[in-house]
């Protein structure tokens, strides 16, 4: 059972009130003092009605705690009002203690000493005081914009921009802890005058919210958000659209990021809709945030309309698929703009490294431990026989046998050869589908009242249709998605699949619902094709890794899992091991020609000509029988061990600050015990 702490028993109405409880009161007194503390206590004095931030009532003293935030106590009127208020309280025999944001943040020990000195004069309140308190240096007071968000001073600035106003209001409290930590790391990096930052954020960690918050925090006049395609571009457009439910600006579960301010003026561009060529420079300059995809970065497009100083902050999402020439041109055009490159994996699709300074890293195991990502449960179907026979059918009718996994993987290295695959023997697909059915039964019970979805990845249209037919025969309502379908057909399939009232339980797709696609009810991911790069495989897994947020699931504390069902012959074991070890999450050392002009290999995707024609080679599975083995990517023990590692690292950082400012520090073990008893 969780032991209640003072921070759990006393909840303030503002960031500053909670900071006082967390960093001052919690280290000055034991939790028993909570019964003598009341928040927002009303006081009437000489025709004035006041509310005390906190009142501590003892046997002899009534101690009024007044907390002064800069925004509300900095002008002449507020200065006068504070003195009238304090004199009234003193006249009513209140003992008044005032603490400001800066005092708590920079002189925490002094604040604790001052509070204890007053409470010691009351026989009742004195019984709760902690003798020789251990007072750490606050590590998260920086979540207010006054501490970390203000950018370096700009020379020759006359007018205040929209973002100057934002920084006075911006609060990071609604963000997840990992997002706030990333903002703090970015602030420290940009303060040093550096510009090329990267954040490696696990799938499911919330890169979109981080990108929006960073834009609000670090832009000066105008920001540019660049995405790899329309799906993610649409995700950012919705996140910045105050009229859309679920926008990041105002509707995060923890509250609005910029209360009391209008949303930024956002211009969303899409080459496919012809908007970029049609939009004028004047229209672009009216925007405070421009959202587009990297296809627009040609000189005749977006860059041709903007001057080097028009953009001062750039966000690149899914940076691992960065097109070298496009991004080199972008960064050269805006040489003084600060950059934020975000990705879950910095292994680029073309095999080249991504040059950036990684200032913050949040791994998948951390996301699982923090409850943002599902536990990954791998279901591997492997054959009983030693080697499986395959067959390649050439366009002229000649057939070539391929025996064993190694021979098959050698053939599958060229995706053009397998784009039109149809399995001659459907037994392997049926075996995989039986496993999917078993997983679906478990997921239906676990996610009720929501309906879990299945996402298949196929090699080509014919392969997708074959998988969908077998899925329907097993009672799984499935349809296909491919780029040759019309927009209305794609929209209809997605509506039936994504809506809770829809009729589809599964979709078989080919590189359509990739990076940026977010549907948390996806509970089973089934790659029916090999993946040459770890990044592509990780992106597929990421489509179902996000935790489903639903009141009933939270109420019963339902542990959520993503089932990854795959065929052992596809060579995915190495990718899974990389995902487990997460040793491919760091950018490699930059090469001299990092931003060379070599084109990114065409891997199909949505570009014309990506898939070969019908007369290309075919590969077919001839025979297979086997069994399925289940394993967890991260065991509960490994997750708990990782949680403990992160806690101790955080404690060590806090302890280092404490030691640096304390002449006679307590041992680390005592420091850890106090921090855990007060902060958990």
TrEMBL record:
Domain Helicase ATP-binding: 188-364
GO terms of molecular function: ATP binding; DNA binding; hydrolase activity
Ranges of Basic and acidic residues composition bias in the record: 582-591
PROSITE patterns: HELICASE_ATP_BIND_1, HELICASE_CTER
Domain Helicase C-terminal: 439-596
Entry's Gene Ontology cellular component terms: cytosol
Stretches the record annotates as Disordered: 582-614
InterPro entries from the UniProt entry: DUF559, Helicase/UvrB_N, Helicase_ATP-bd, Helicase_C-like, Helicase_Restrict-Modif_Enz, P-loop_NTPase
SMART domains, alphabetized: DEXDc
Record protein name field: DUF559 domain-containing protein
């Amino acid at each position: 059972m969780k032991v209640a702490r003072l921070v759990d028993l006393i909840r303030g109405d503002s960031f500053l009130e909670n900071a006082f409880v967390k960093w001052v009161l919690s280290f000055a007194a034991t939790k028993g003092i909570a019964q003598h503390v009341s928040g927002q206590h009303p006081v009437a004095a000489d025709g004035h009605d006041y509310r005390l931030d906190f009142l501590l009532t003892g046997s002899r003293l009534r101690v009024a705690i007044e907390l002064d935030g800069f925004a509300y106590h900095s002008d002449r009127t507020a200065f006068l009002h504070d003195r009238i208020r304090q004199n009234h309280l003193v006249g009513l025999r209140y003992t008044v203690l005032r603490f400001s944001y800066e005092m708590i943040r920079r002189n925490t020990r002094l604040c604790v000493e001052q509070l204890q000195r007053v409470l010691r004069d009351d026989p009742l309140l004195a019984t709760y005081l902690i003798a020789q308190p251990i007072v750490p240096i606050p590590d998260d007071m920086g979540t207010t914009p006054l501490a970390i968000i203000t950018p370096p001073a700009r020379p020759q600035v006359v007018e205040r921009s929209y973002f100057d106003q934002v920084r006075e209001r911006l609060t990071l409290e609604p963000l997840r802890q990992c997002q706030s930590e990333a903002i703090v790391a970015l602030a420290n990096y940009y303060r040093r005058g550096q510009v090329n930052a990267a954040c490696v954020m696990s799938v499911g960690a919330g890169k979109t919210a981080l990108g929006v918050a960073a834009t609000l925090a670090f832009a000066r006049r105008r920001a540019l958000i660049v995405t790899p395609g329309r799906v993610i571009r649409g995700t950012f457009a919705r996140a910045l659209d105050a009229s859309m439910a679920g926008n990041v600006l105002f509707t995060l579960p923890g509250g609005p990021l910029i209360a009391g301010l209008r949303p930024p003026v956002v211009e969303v561009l899409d080459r496919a809709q012809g908007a970029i060529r049609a939009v004028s420079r004047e229209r672009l300059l009216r925007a405070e945030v421009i959202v587009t995809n990297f296809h627009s970065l040609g000189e005749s497009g977006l860059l041709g309309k903007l001057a080097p100083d028009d953009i001062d902050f750039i966000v690149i999402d899914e940076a691992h698929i960065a097109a070298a020439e496009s991004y080199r041109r972008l960064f050269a055009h805006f040489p003084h703009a600060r950059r934020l490159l975000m990705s879950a994996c910095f292994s680029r699709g073309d095999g080249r490294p991504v040059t950036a300074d990684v200032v913050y890293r949040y791994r998948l195991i951390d996301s699982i431990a923090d409850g943002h990502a599902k536990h990954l449960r791998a279901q591997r179907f492997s054959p009983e026989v030693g080697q499986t026979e395959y067959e390649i059918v050439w366009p002229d009718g000649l057939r070539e046998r391929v025996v064993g996994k190694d021979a098959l993987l050698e053939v599958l290295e060229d995706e053009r050869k397998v784009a039109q695959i149809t399995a001659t023997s459907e037994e392997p697909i049926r075996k995989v589908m039986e496993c999917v059915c078993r997983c679906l039964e478990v997921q239906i019970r676990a996610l009720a009242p929501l309906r879990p979805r299945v996402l298949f990845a196929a090699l080509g249209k014919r392969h997708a249709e074959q998988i969908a037919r077998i899925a329907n025969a097993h009672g799984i309502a499935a349809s296909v998605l491919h780029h040759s379908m019309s927009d209305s057909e794609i929209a209809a399939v997605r509506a039936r699949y994504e809506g809770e009232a829809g009729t589809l339980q599964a979709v078989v797709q080919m590189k359509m619902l990739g990076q940026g696609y977010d549907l948390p009810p996806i509970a089973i991911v089934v790659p029916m094709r090999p993946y040459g790069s770890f990044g592509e495989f990780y992106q597929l897994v990421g489509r179902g890794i996000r935790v489903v947020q639903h009141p009933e699931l939270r109420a019963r504390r339902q542990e959520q899992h993503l089932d990854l069902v795959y065929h052992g012959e596809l060579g995915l074991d190495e990718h899974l091991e990389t995902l487990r070890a997460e040793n491919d999450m760091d950018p490699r050392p930059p090469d001299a020609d990092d931003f060379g002009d070599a084109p990114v290999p065409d891997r199909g995707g949505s570009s014309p000509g990506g898939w070969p024609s019908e007369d290309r080679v075919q590969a077919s599975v001839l025979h297979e029988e086997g069994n399925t083995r289940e394993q967890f990517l991260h065991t509960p023990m490994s997750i708990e061990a990782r949680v403990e590692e992160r806690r101790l690292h955080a404690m060590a950082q806090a302890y280092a600050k404490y030691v640096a400012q304390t002449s006679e520090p307590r041992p680390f073990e005592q420091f850890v015990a106090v921090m855990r008893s007060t902060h958990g």
